[in-house]
């Protein structure tokens, strides 16, 4: 008996460090949800990094087609960037409004975010349509392939974000600021801000670096 | 209307896939009819298909893996027979069929056998070991499983409608590009992996969050069972690596569907980029598979040696070291690309460095056995068999990491033997050990030991009879994926390997018989105490099978080997009888979201493969609608009243008291 | 095709490293396996002579040893890998007697084309080389990836469309060897084995002269015919019309091979397979 008794104690602190801080137990749902969504965002950023890597590898492969500096329009990109950065602000306002359960400011913030997102998408779509019309579609060269996929992948995320945004508004309308709705709102805000961060990467790597070449 | 789909997609002129497909179809229909006729459908729907209970989902994962193991195994048998007979002849399989078989074999064994098996075990066990009631995201967990099942379904569908990829399991471009693979095979491959990849990512996020954020009181990181640590490492790898696979396959699909030029020969596409990307996922993938197996062996060796795991902290360190280094070695898969001596040498050495923590693990298991009282139950047999087999696989692996040796052995049968050595010897043995070890926990009765041991010995010997000849054939210059060959020196080894396959098949049959025999004798094999192996971690602290809420009270952990500790304390305190105060428990409601979502994913995947665009839109809308409906529901939890909890728990406590008092008497 | 029966310096050095590495590792692997079996046997529950030590769960000394054994082995092997990768890099020169022979290898669907630009000849599925001379290979692919490999001469290397890889080898003894593609490339892949005739340096000019007398001419037109998917059972030889043909292939002036013809839109598994049989 004495042998087993020591066995139990020996493992608790084999290195005799002394202080062991006890884990308090499972985290709350709010924390778990936001944490899980963070992990998802990290994985999403890994996916983007592949498209960034592909762009870095292929950006010189123009196959006789246009170079970046020949097709990028700084003006449009500036408007896009402003829209997206502003939308992050309005999205933040909506989050705060949701936290204090103010419907009016929530709807206003979300609506502004939605409009700014749609403006961003419209400009991007026009840029793409224009390039395709000039014969510079993604199948023209590996550079354009990488460009369309990287920027398009971000655009798809924004579109999904807008869809989610509208669903969130509808949900607040139908269900009010319920605990689960608020948890989703945290996730949506995280998502929207992450898209902003990725856009900063796209903006720098594609448009700023590309215009110089 | 139906895109590329027409009657010519059904291979009426090819008897083998047609018959195989028909057999599968008849089997599925038979099971369905039986289920409906016997009136089991409501039970299945309410208790399993819509279940969000992590234990049920874990069991379904393992069931999926087992079924697909039979499919992948039949592919293996066909390949071994083909290579045994195709000396100076075409054998019985024409190249376009043989090439599909080896591609399907690899894809199925990795994605639909190994992955679901380990994810299933993690799902089943980890919340129990952490002392909590469920995983972090129960409904998403169900979505993840059903998406994996969707992928498996699409792969099997390719048997009868169209074809599967003929490009190998990683579908290297330019061979997998539209110009060289115009059929739907690569599309089946890519879409089923995309869909199941989403499922895997969801499972990964879920388990990472569970381990990091849901642990019972006192379950500090350095008190977690080893299996929880390896689960954490493996799922961190899933979260970091699977998006790479998703991106890479997305690029390949863009090339194929929209004429992009990521990996094409034309317009500046870059094949080497595919190699880099796919292996940046592919190498972590093998650790995603093998780390949980390491965790299982840690649990099994320690339990059956009657000792705590030797060098626990060292093991944790080794696990996390493997987790990190596994991302820095991918280039060893293509030393022969001509990258230059510095690059090759650096990646060669980085690959060898992984052998250090892996070696440490082996030695720590060795010293766990030292001074133990080893009971050779079936899980322990698998573990010792693993240690011996895996060391040999490690040896050949490090050998392949030496670039000049790889210049001779790359892509050879030696390589084939090596990765089967680590995947069968590591992952599959681990999965079987875990299966035997935790089966009583999941179902409340043990598995038959005699058939289990027979299965081990046949599999163990069969493995060596099959793969040692392949090592030798590799040394004789034989390369992989040969549909036929004219070199006389290779032939005898192929015949021996085919014989080994017979032995392996007997092993699998023993496994099936074991299951049948055990189900028949389940009353005799019943585990009433919930602790059939004298276990050490918390999953053994609850009944077998555990109630839906796992634990009536969240256990309070005071040290490593939490349950062992509790047992010791219980004996010392001579079984004090305090009556606990039971409380209501809230559990997540079941939800058909996963199943419905997977249904739409299947429709969408199939439509994408065959270019049926209206159906794609329909599937996408359906999946979105499913999530909206899920988000709209008002009650996501139900309450189990305290009386019910008390009633269920008391039965278990009585059984357990008798066990502890018996052990105390000894 | 035995790897342990090398016929050239590269293969000899590679297989020496291979065998050395195995023995270095066996030195710790064998004792470990013996220890596993011995411990498992001795500490079986039924053995009353074995001492039960449930408290033996940590030992700094043991940890020290178990981390250092694999670490030392890896340091040793890492040195082997570093030196080996540099000395045996596929592009490293392999000095030989006489002037080096330049060979440009192109992997086609599903055959090997060997161009001798200096000799103005080309052969399909046979490689004829003089013993003792350095062989400078430049390799590319007409379509999909392949790997050029002559097991008894040494290192293999990828062939990729639009890219040129380099490999230097030497064959020391006259005789017949076999080479193959070591990277799956489609339905005709197993038929991509080729003969390697190592002849005496004196006979080599004669062989070149005889081959050059052939009527068949390799130019862009005949190359385009050759790169159609199919298996070449014969061993055709050509007079090389344009010595820059390889460059035209490698820098994609001649577009990549066509792949299977689209028989029907549906995914029939026939495309290309017909030719393979």
Automatic annotation (TrEMBL), chain A:
Ranges that cross the membrane: 35-57, 77-97, 104-123, 143-166, 186-210
Name of protein: Cytochrome bo(3) ubiquinol oxidase subunit 3
Gene Ontology molecular function, alphabetical: cytochrome-c oxidase activity; oxidoreductase activity
Role of this protein: Cytochrome bo(3) ubiquinol terminal oxidase is the component of the aerobic respiratory chain of E.coli that predominates when cells are grown at high aeration. Has proton pump activity across the membrane in addition to electron transfer, pumping 2 protons/electron.
Location in or out of the cell: Cell membrane
High-level lineage: Bacteria, Pseudomonadati, Pseudomonadota, Alphaproteobacteria, Hyphomicrobiales
Superkingdom of origin organism: Bacteria
Keyword terms of this UniProt record: Cell membrane, Membrane, Oxidoreductase, Transmembrane, Transmembrane helix
Record's bilayer topology term: Multi-pass membrane protein
Family under the similarity heading: Belongs to the cytochrome c oxidase subunit 3 family.
One Pfam entry name: COX3
A GO cellular component annotation in the UniProt record: plasma membrane
Gene Ontology biological-process entries: aerobic electron transport chain
UniProtKB/TrEMBL annotation, chain B:
SUPFAM superfamilies referenced in this protein's UniProt entry, alphabetically: Cytochrome c oxidase subunit I-like (SSF81442)
A GO-annotated cellular component: plasma membrane
Keywords: Cell membrane, Copper, Electron transport, Heme, Iron, Membrane, Metal-binding, Respiratory chain, Transmembrane, Transmembrane helix, Transport
Membrane association type: Multi-pass membrane protein
Key word Cell membrane present: yes
Signal peptide region: none
InterPro entries: Cyt_c_oxase-like_su1_dom, Cyt_c_oxase-like_su1_sf, Cyt_C_Oxase_1, Cyt_c_Oxase_su1_BS, Cyt_c_ubiqinol_oxidase_su1
Statement: the UniProt record of this protein carries the keyword GTP-binding: no
Protein location: Cell membrane
Domain Cytochrome oxidase subunit I profile: 43-558
A Pfam family hit: COX1
One MF annotation (Gene Ontology) recorded for this entry: heme binding
Family, per entry: Belongs to the heme-copper respiratory oxidase family.
Protein name, as recorded: Cytochrome o ubiquinol oxidase subunit I
Organism for this UniProt entry: Bradyrhizobium nitroreducens
From TrEMBL, chain C:
Transmembrane regions: 22-43, 64-84
Principal subcellular localisation of the protein: membrane
UniProt cross-references to CDD domains, sorted A to Z: CuRO_UO_II
Residue ranges occupied by any Cytochrome oxidase subunit II copper A binding domain in the UniProt entry: 98-210
Keywords: Cell membrane, Electron transport, Membrane, Oxidoreductase, Respiratory chain, Signal, Transmembrane, Transmembrane helix, Transport
Signal sequence interval, chain numbering: none
Membrane topology note: Multi-pass membrane protein
PROSITE patterns per UniProt: COX2_CUA, COX2_TM
GO biological process: ATP synthesis coupled electron transport
GO molecular function: copper ion binding; cytochrome-c oxidase activity; oxidoreductase activity, acting on diphenols and related substances as donors, oxygen as acceptor
Residue ranges of every copy of the Cytochrome oxidase subunit II transmembrane region profile domain listed in the record: 1-92
Keyword Transport: yes
Family matches, as InterPro entries: CcO_II, CcO_II-like_C, Cupredoxin, CuRO_UO_II, Cyt_c_oxidase_su2_TM_dom, Cyt_c_oxidase_su2_TM_sf, Cyt_o_ubiquinol_oxidase_su2
Localisation per UniProt entry: Cell membrane
One GO CC term on file: plasma membrane
Region (Disordered): 256-277
Similarity-based family: Belongs to the cytochrome c oxidase subunit 2 family.
Protein name in UniProt: Ubiquinol oxidase subunit 2
Organism whose genome encodes this protein: Bradyrhizobium nitroreducens
């Amino acid at each position: 008996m004495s042998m087993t008794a020591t066995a139990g104690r020996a493992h608790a602190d084999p290195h005799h460090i002394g202080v062991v801080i006890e884990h308090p137990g499972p985290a709350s749902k709010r924390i778990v949800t936001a944490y899980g969504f963070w992990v998802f965002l990290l994985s999403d950023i890994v996916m983007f990094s592949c498209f960034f890597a592909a762009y870095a590898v292929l950006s010189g492969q123009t196959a006789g087609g246009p170079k970046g500096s020949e097709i990028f329009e700084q003006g449009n990109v500036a408007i896009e960037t402003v829209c997206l950065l502003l939308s992050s602000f309005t999205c933040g306002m909506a989050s705060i409004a949701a936290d204090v359960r103010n419907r009016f400011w929530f709807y206003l913030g979300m609506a502004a975010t939605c409009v700014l997102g749609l403006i961003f998408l419209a400009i991007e779509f026009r840029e793409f349509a224009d390039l395709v019309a000039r014969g510079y579609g993604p199948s023209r060269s590996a550079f354009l392939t990488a460009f369309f996929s990287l920027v398009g992948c971000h655009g798809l995320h924004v579109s999904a974000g807008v869809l989610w945004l509208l669903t969130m508004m509808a949900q607040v309308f139908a269900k009010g600021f319920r605990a689960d709705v608020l948890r989703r709102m945290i996730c949506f805000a995280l998502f929207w801000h992450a898209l902003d961060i990725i856009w900063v990467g796209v903006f720098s790597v594609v448009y700023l670096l590309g215009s110089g070449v | 209307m139906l895109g590329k789909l027409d009657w010519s997609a059904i291979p009426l002129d090819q008897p083998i896939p047609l018959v195989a497909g028909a057999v599968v179809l008849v089997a599925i229909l038979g099971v369905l009819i039986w289920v409906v006729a016997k009136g089991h459908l409501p039970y299945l729907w309410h208790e399993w298909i819509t279940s969000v209970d992590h234990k049920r989902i874990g069991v379904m994962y393992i069931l999926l893996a087992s079924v697909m193991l039979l499919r992948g195994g039949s592919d293996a048998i066909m390949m071994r027979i083909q290579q045994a007979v195709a000396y100076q002849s075409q054998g019985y399989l024409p190249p376009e069929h043989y090439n599909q078989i080896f591609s399907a074999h690899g894809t199925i064994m990795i994605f639909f056998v190994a992955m679901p098996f380990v994810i299933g075990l993690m799902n089943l066990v980890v919340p129990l070991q952490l002392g909590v009631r469920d995983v972090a995201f129960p409904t998403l967990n169900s979505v993840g499983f059903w998406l994996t099942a969707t992928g498996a379904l699409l792969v099997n569908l390719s048997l009868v409608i169209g074809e599967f990829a003929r490009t190998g399991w990683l579908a290297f471009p330019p061979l997998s590009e539209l110009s060289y693979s115009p059929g739907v095979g690569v599309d089946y491959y890519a879409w089923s992996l995309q869909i199941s990849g989403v499922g895997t990512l969801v499972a990964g996020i879920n388990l990472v969050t569970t381990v990091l954020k849901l642990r019972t009181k006192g379950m500090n990181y350095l008190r977690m069972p080893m299996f929880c640590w390896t689960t954490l490492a493996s799922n961190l790898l899933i979260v970091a690596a699977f998006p790479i696979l998703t991106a890479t396959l997305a690029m390949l699909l863009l090339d194929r569907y929209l004429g992009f030029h990521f990996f094409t020969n034309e317009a500046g596409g870059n094949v080497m980029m595919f190699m880099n990307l796919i292996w940046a996922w592919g190498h972590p993938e093998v650790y995603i598979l093998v780390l949980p197996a390491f965790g299982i062996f840690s649990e099994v060796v320690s339990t059956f040696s009657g000792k705590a795991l030797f060098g626990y902290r060292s093991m944790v360190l080794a696990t996390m070291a493997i987790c990190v280094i596994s991302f820095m070695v991918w280039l060893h898969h293509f030393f022969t690309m001509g990258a230059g001596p510095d690059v090759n040498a650096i990646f060669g050495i980085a690959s060898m460095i992984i052998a250090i923590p892996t070696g440490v693990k082996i030695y720590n298991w060795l010293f766990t056995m030292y001074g133990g009282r080893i009971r050779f139950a079936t899980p322990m047999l698998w573990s010792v068999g693993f240690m011996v087999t895996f060391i040999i696989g490690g040896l050949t692996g490090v050998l392949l990491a030496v670039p000049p040796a790889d210049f001779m052995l790359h892509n050879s049968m030696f390589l084939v033997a090596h990765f089967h050595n680590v995947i069968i010897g590591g992952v599959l043995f681990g999965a079987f050990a875990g299966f035997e070890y935790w089966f009583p926990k999941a179902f409340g009765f043990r598995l038959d030991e005699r058939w289990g041991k027979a299965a081990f010995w046949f599999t163990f010997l069969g493995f060596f009879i099959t793969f040692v000849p392949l090592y030798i054939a590799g040394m004789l210059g034989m390369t992989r994926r040969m549909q036929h060959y004219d070199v006389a020196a290779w032939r005898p080894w192929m015949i021996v390997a085919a014989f080994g396959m017979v032995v392996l098949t007997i092993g699998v049959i023993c496994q099936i018989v074991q299951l049948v025999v055990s189900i028949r004798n389940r009353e005799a094999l019943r585990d009433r105490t919930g602790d059939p192996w004298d276990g050490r971690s918390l999953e053994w602290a609850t009944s077998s099978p555990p109630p839906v809420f796992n634990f009536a009270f969240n256990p309070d952990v005071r040290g490593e080997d939490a349950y062992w500790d509790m047992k010791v304390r219980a004996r010392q305190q001579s079984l004090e009888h305090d009556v606990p105060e039971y409380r209501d428990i809230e559990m997540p409601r079941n939800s058909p979201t996963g199943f419905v979502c997977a249904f739409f994913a299947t429709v969408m995947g199939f439509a994408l493969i065959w270019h049926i665009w209206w159906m794609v839109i329909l599937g996408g809308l359906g999946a979105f609608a499913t999530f909206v409906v899920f988000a709209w529901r008002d009650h996501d939890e139900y309450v189990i009243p305290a009386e019910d909890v008390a009633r269920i728990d008391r039965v278990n406590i009585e059984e357990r008291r008798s066990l502890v008092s018996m052990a105390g008497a000894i | 095709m035995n790897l342990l029966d090398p016929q050239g310096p590269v293969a000899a050095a590679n297989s020496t490293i291979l065998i050395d590495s195995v023995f270095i590792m066996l030195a710790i692997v064998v004792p470990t396996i013996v220890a596993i079996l011995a411990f498992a046997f001795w500490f079986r529950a039924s053995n009353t002579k074995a001492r039960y030590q449930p408290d033996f769960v940590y030992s700094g000394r043991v940890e020290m040893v178990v981390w250092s054994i694999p670490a030392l082995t890896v340091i040793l092997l890492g040195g082997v890998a570093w030196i080996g990768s540099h000395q045996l890099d596929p592009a490293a020169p392999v000095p030989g007697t006489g002037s080096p022979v330049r060979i440009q290898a192109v992997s086609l669907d599903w055959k090997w084309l060997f161009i001798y630009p200096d000799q103005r000849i080309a052969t399909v599925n046979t490689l004829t080389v003089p013993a003792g001379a350095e062989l400078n290979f430049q390799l590319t692919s007409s379509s999909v990836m392949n790997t050029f490999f002559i097991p008894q001469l040494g290192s293999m290397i990828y062939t990729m469309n639009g890219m040129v890889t380099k490999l230097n080898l030497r064959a020391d003894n006259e005789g017949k060897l076999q080479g193959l593609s070591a990277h799956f490339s489609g339905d005709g892949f197993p038929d991509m084995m080729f003969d390697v005739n190592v002849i005496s340096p004196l006979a080599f000019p004669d062989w070149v002269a005889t081959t050059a007398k052939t009527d068949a001419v390799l130019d862009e037109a005949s190359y385009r015919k050759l790169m159609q998917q199919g298996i070449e059972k014969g061993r055709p030889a050509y007079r090389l019309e344009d010595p820059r043909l390889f460059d035209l292939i490698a820098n994609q002036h001649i577009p990549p091979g066509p792949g299977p013809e689209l028989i029907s839109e549906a995914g029939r598994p026939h495309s290309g397979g017909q030719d393979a049989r």
